[in-house]
Amino acid sequence: MTPLIFEQRYSAEWQELAQLLAQVRGDKLAAQGRAARDVPGHRLTQLYRRACEQLALARSRSFPAHLIERLESLTHEAHQLIYSQRDYGARKLAHLLFTTFPQAVRSHANYVWVAALVFVLPTVVLGWLVFKQPELILSVVGAETASQFEEMYSPTAESIGRRRNAETDVAMFGFYIRNNMTVALQCFASGLAAGVGSLFYLAFNGGYTGAIGGYLTQRGMGGTFYPFVATHSSFELTAIVLAGAAGLRLGHAWLAPRRRTRSQALVKAARDVLPIVYGVLAMLLIAAAIEAFWSSSSLVPSTVKYSVAALCWTAVLGWLWLQGRDRAG
Asked: How large is the average pLDDT for residues 90-116?
């Protein structure tokens, strides 16, 4: 490739990068006195990485000094702006949750679908089996635990889903956070075991959920159990599936590092799924709050809970499917 062809091929990218850098500089000034514009950060970092590769190529082939200086100037400025950002406020958080997170979920769609299938299939199968043969619940939990579930979801329970050792909804909120985070961490971190761990925990938690649901349905408590789980499950179950998908991405990187070493592949995979991990944490916090303060209320009619649940499921799926598309670069 000649220097002329090189410049013609990549000049449009350099101009776009320069325009984005100018926009970032403008946003910094705008943030001091007026509303700043949205800068497509994904595209900015993509162009920065490509410019670094092009600079390395230009240097290796001893291209004219003006080309190398132009690329050095662009990459230096981009590096300074990208790595000097210290905006951790509401705007940064909103960009993460409503742009970066859903984009990362969609870019790992194959892992998400596999994780969803591994979770849902045992849920349905175990739920049906235990509903038809309720004694099978003892293969999943002990008799005391099964009895405790009956007590928690009894139509006469003062607070639905509350455990015996929890006196308030606030105490249950703390319990739900700890429990949800533990499950998500298992599904994610166990992916390091070549993805097998993530598959196991997804299937286990799906089967456990289905078994409890089937048992309570057979015992005539579906009228309290399903209104209880309907709303917060939109955040909680989706988050668990996403955590498992992130774990599968780690496992795939370990099994098929391609031209990288395994450690390099794992580092790259971890960086790729980090936005998903952040999103999962946010979803689990939301789920815990809903479960403790809304789902557990025996004063809210089931029809209202189902209506709110439909809105939550629509919002979650729309969030992951639609948000950030106009900024995908």
From this structure: 92
Contact yes or no for 305/231 (Cβ under 8 A): yes
36 pLDDT higher than 50: no
Neighbour-count burial for 120-145, b at 16+ CB within 10 Å, e otherwise: bebbeebbebbbeebeebeebbeeee
120 lies in the same domain as 37? no
Of 212, 223, 195, nearest to 305 (Cα)? 223
Q: Quick one: which of 113, 97, 49 has its CA closest to 324? A: 97
pTM for the whole structure: 0.73
User: Domain boundary at 47, 62, 86, which?
Assistant: 86
303 and 178 share a domain? yes
Q: Indicate if 136 and 49 belong to the same structural domain.
A: no
Give DSSP secondary structure letters for 101-160.
Answer: HHHHHHHTHHHHHHHHHHHHHHHHHHHHHHHH-GGGGGGTS-HHHHHHHHHHT-TT-SST
Rounded distance between C-alpha atoms, residue 124 and residue 116, angstroms: 12
Nearest to 152 by CA among 230, 208, 216, 209: 216
Is residue 6 classed as helix, strand or coil in its secondary structure?
helix
**271 contact partners, CB below 8 Å, separation of at least 6:** none
Q: At what angle do helices 65-83 and 41-60 cross, to 10 degrees?
A: 150
Chain-centroid distance of CA 44 in Å reads 23
Cα–Cα–Cα angle for 96, 235, 312, nearest 5°? 100
Q: In whole angstroms, what separates CA 314 from the centre of its chain? A: 17
Q: Burial letters for 203-238: b for 16+ Cβ neighbours within 10 Å, e otherwise? A: bbbbbbbbbbbbbbbbbebeebbbbbbbbbbbbbbb
Ranking 39-48, 78-87, 110-119 by mean pLDDT, the lowest is: 78-87
93 occurs within a structural domain: no
Asked whether 106 and 321 are in contact (CB, 8 A), the reply is yes
